[in-house]
Hints:
Elements: H1 2-24, H2 26-29, H3 40-111
Helix pairs in contact: 1-3
Amino acid sequence: MKQLDKISHLLTALFFGIVLVFFLLFENVKGILKVEELTPTLVVNFLLIGLLLFLISWGTSTMVKSNLVADLSKKETEKNELKAKLYDFEQGVKLKNIEKKLDTLEEDKEASVIRKRQNFK
């Protein structure tokens, strides 16, 4: 779709450039294209074709932009899910450490009421 967008913009710019050169050099080119006069119908036809090309290029750029926004929102959602998993993992590790400490404290209390002797030097 990006390629179509680039081509449509290039085609629109090229068309308006050729039409500009045609109108600027009309006196020199009118015999080549078999157009003797510059009539309002001819100018309106050029403008309508240009408008059609412009609308096509605008539509393709809008579609490309909406696709990019959709991809960005998907990536943000994935990023938030990964952050949540990482947070849960970190909290799980902390909880396991706390549970181990509590288990060792409970075992110490259950083993005996009398404290073990500590040797101080």
